[in-house]
TrEMBL record:
Name used for this protein in its record: Uncharacterized protein
Alphabetized UniProt keyword annotations: Glycoprotein, Glycosyltransferase, Golgi apparatus, Membrane, Signal-anchor, Transferase, Transmembrane, Transmembrane helix
Record's subcellular location: Golgi apparatus membrane
Organism: Rhododendron simsii (Sims's rhododendron)
A Pfam family reported for this protein in Swiss-Prot or TrEMBL: Glyco_transf_34
Amino acid sequence: MGRVAIAVAKMEKIIGPSKPIFIGIAGVGLLMLLLSFSPFTSYPNMYDVAKMTVTPKKDGAATNDCTTVSYQGLKLDHDPANQTFYDDQTQSYEIGNSGNNWDTKRREWLEHHPSFATGAEDRVLLLTGSQPEPCKNPIGDHLLLRLFKNKVDYCRIHGYDIFYNNAFLHPKMVSWWTKMPMIRAAMLAHPEVEWIFWVDSDTVFTDMDFKPPLEKYKDHNLVVHGYYSKVYEEKSWGGVNAGVFFIRNCQWSMEFLEVWAEMGPQTPNYEKWGQILTSTMSDKTDPESDDQSALVYFLLKQKETLGKKIYIENQYDLSGYWFDIINSFDTISDNYARIEKGVMELQRRHAEKVSEHYAMVMKEAFSDGGGGKRPFITHFTACSPCSGVHWGYTDEQCWGGMEKALNFADNQVLRNYGFVHPDLLNTSYLYPLP
């Protein structure tokens, strides 16, 4: 405004003080001229808006210019009247009845729903859940919410469906065994999916880019994280982790779930199975029958039958042990930032829906010598976010570790929205990206 006053004063010397109207007009004109050269961003004013005209070609409501071309997709509003397994009164959602000919029934349903049949072999439903009551731990419900958000983010990025359950579908199948009836019911509720992806609530997806290589498991029906040596040589109950696994939506899986569930608390042989599993495992001290020890037992006793359909995965962290991982997050973040600086395409901002493309570019960059990859899933085994009970760890270790893992994962999501957490232990502070 100082420059404008000087300019007006000079104008007065030229035209004299007897021309106030002219001076006023000249001052306004000069002000508009100076603002037109302002280094600051200019915005449309009311004069610009008034000059805009809406024509049929520009009006989004009058034409399709502002709408997206739609393509033929899944027909969610179409269910033909053909008879399917849903009309079979003997078919049950409950555990305790494996039914029969599920593969045929599922195939027939897909034939009646051709829009779902396309790509069915790669379709995944992520299944997770928690107890129906509020958490005893004061921050437990908040942590469960963040842990669930993490899974929703992962599913949205990769096109997976997700179902979160907090109801006991079988009153006696509690604790580790709650997953069995949930998986059984989900298979019937989602005949369009090939894989049920069970993920415990106390897990964090810490590599939002990674997508499991399902084609690798074409000859298997159950994929679980573990180590052959721990199962077959050490006979350890920790030889596999039953908190995260893929199970195929097929008749084999339905029958396997029934056999697996027979070791659960709803059966009269529950205590006996606890004794058998404890005597079989080299390091099991808990006398209760649990799902993980039961799975190791199957692998040991039926290696040539059930074992041939179970894939023990250890080439990536399908269930990475959190205590061995969390201290590496800062180093891993720095490593990814270094690789991104060296690959022009990775520096490009992009839509969230095309994240898998950039994940492939990053994968190629790692194959050229990059190290320190993100763990796929970080599993907070022995830390209970809801009860607040830990086995061998402090509150600070468990809650601090979860916050760090969640922010580490959240950074990968928020990047596509233009922000990151500069401090993995500070959830509230975000930094805008350029």
